[in-house]
Design a protein that fits this description.
This protein has two domains: 209 residues, no CATH class; 39 residues, no CATH class. Helices cover 69% and strands 0% of the residues. It is mostly helical. Helix 2 packs parallel to helix 5, helix 3 packs antiparallel against helix 5 and helix 7 packs antiparallel against helix 8.
């Protein structure tokens, strides 16, 4: 959840007049629609997981709110710049509750869900990352907090949901690029904002974040784990042997500098 709410704090935490001047009413309407659609889709994901875990209605609502609104709540709490938007604009909580209700009453699964949800999730990620970074810049913080809080806005809710379920958060590894896509979207917004193009920053960040997320799903792009960079994988065996011959410390090693992971001759 990002909070494209207008009113006392305006979209991204700025004034309503300033946001309208930068983006225009029709554009703001589009981004708000994407925002709420992302909240609903991720709330439904929370409900789908709640059904798998055989939770009761309270569990459905809890996971739906965490999935759909958790990132924005974390961001607004860290910024300490007014009440979180989810608590002042009832559209957000009601949308999350709606997602929980749908998944509680209807078993949401199958080919249609598997095709539609990734697209909605990717759009939400780009939108949330952009707005999180924009709001951080709007309260006077620099580029690094903007990238950090933009990323947290996009992925924080899912991470908290996984922690509540005693899982390792999916964004921490083993899955296609997600937090990386959010960080890239936040970085694009920061760069364009600093270059004097705030109006272009949000749509560009949305496209970059959503596009990278979808392409990563399609191509199966993931970040390497620590073992992928170990010498036994990065350096071919024949070159490791040459290094040992030229390394006096390993040459006098009792086991001959043998790599534990090398196959026996």
């Amino acid at each position: 959840m990002v909070g494209w709410a207008t009113g006392a704090h305006g979209a991204c935490g700025g004034s309503e007049e300033a946001d309208t001047a930068v983006f225009g009413d029709p554009v703001m309407g589009v981004f708000r629609a994407v925002d709420l659609t992302g909240v609903f889709a991720n709330a439904m994901l929370g409900g789908v997981i709640a059904r798998r875990e055989k939770l009761d209605p309270v569990g459905f609502v809890t996971l739906a709110v965490l999935s759909g609104l958790g990132g924005g709540l974390i961001r607004d709490t860290l910024l300490q710049h007014g009440t979180p938007v989810a608590l002042t604009d009832y559209a957000y909580l009601l949308t999350a509750f709606g997602g929980a209700a749908v998944t509680f009453l209807i078993r949401v699964e199958g080919r249609l869900w598997n095709r539609v949800w990734p697209v909605l999730d990717a759009l939400a990620l780009g939108c949330w990352a952009a707005a999180g970074a924009e709001k951080t810049l709007g309260v006077g913080l620099g580029w690094l907090p903007a990238v950090l809080l933009g990323t947290i806005t996009a992925v924080g809710g899912g991470a908290v949901r996984d922690i509540v379920l005693r899982r390792v958060p999916a964004v921490l590894g083993g899955n296609t690029l997600y937090a990386t896509a959010a960080a890239a979207a936040s970085g694009v917004l920061v760069i364009l904002h600093g270059a004097g193009y705030p109006g272009a920053g949000v749509p560009a960040a949305l496209v970059v974040g959503a596009g990278l997320c979808l392409v990563a799903r399609w191509r199966g792009w993931i970040l390497p784990d620590a073992d992928a960079w170990s010498p036994t994988r990065v350096v071919p065996a024949r070159y490791r042997a040459r290094l040992r011959r030229h390394d006096p410390d390993r040459r006098h090693d009792p086991d001959g500098g043998r790599d534990e992971n090398e196959d026996s001759p």
